[in-house]
Amino acid sequence: MSLTLQKKVCLLGAFAVGKTSLVSRFVKGIFSEKYLSTMGVKIDRKNLQIGDVTINMMLWDIHGEESNKKVPAAYMRGTAAYLLVVDGTRKSTIAAACELHERIRTEAGDIPFVVLLNKCDLQDEWQLAESDMEAMQEKGWECFLTSACSGQNVDAAFSRLAEKLLP
Ligand code: GDP
Ligand code: MG
Question: Which H helix or E strand runs over 9?
């Protein structure tokens, strides 16, 4: 018997880490060089088939500039899972991710998430050390090195999250 589940999934992370680009890469399979600061909240959808179950992901993506401090509670409410995005070329975005992680756990509880260490195509500008990544793994964070630019690991990260949403 087949089953379809609709799940709200939030994108969380500091400004310009690549949240909008990752959703756009995942949903449409393209990467736009154009810089578009999305206003308000944008909701994209994508179906993922895992065995007999279809996960209909509703991907919530908030306007970037306020994304760290001022994520409204309503943005997080009712979310089933989240993607926590770090910009590998800006180490300070780890602290922002930690803060958002704490906040969403207060709002939504102990729900599934994965961590995307994004912009891994920018090797020359990469700032995360092995020890940073180990520290995240030790906290139990499941991390993916992603690039919205090349597409590397984008599907893998979203699919892993979908798997975690299976009943
Ligand atoms: P948001 O504020 O988190 O939604 O970030 P955006 O998706 O708007 O991306 C911010 C900037 O980083 C834009 O100029 C993107 O083109 C760029 N960007 C996003 N992801 C990547 C990536 O994986 N690699 C590279 N090289 N640039 C990226
Ligand atoms: Mg954005």
Answer: strand 3-13
Rg of the Cα atoms in the chain = 15
Distance 106 CA to ligand 2 centre (A): 23
Residues with CB under 5 A from ligand 2 (ion): 19-20, 38, 64
- Domain with 22, as residue range(s), is 3-164
> What are the two backbone dihedrals, phi and then psi, of residue 70, each rounded to the nearest 5 degrees?
-110, 30
Which protein residue has the closest C-alpha to ligand 1 atom 17?
A: 18
Helix (H) or strand (E) holding 82: strand 81-87
Q: Is the confidence at residue 62, as pLDDT, over 60?
A: yes
In this predicted model, which residue has the larger pLDDT, 15 or 114? 114
Tell me the pTM: 0.94
Q: CA-based angle 129:133:137, to the nearest 5?
A: 160
Which pair of tokens denotes residue 27? 């949903």
Residue nearest to atom 11 of ligand 1 (CA): 16
- Residue 56 and residue 18: Cα distance in Å, rounded? 22
How many domains in the chain? 1
CATH number of 75's domain: 3.40.50.300
Find the 167 Cα to ligand 2 centroid distance in Å.
30
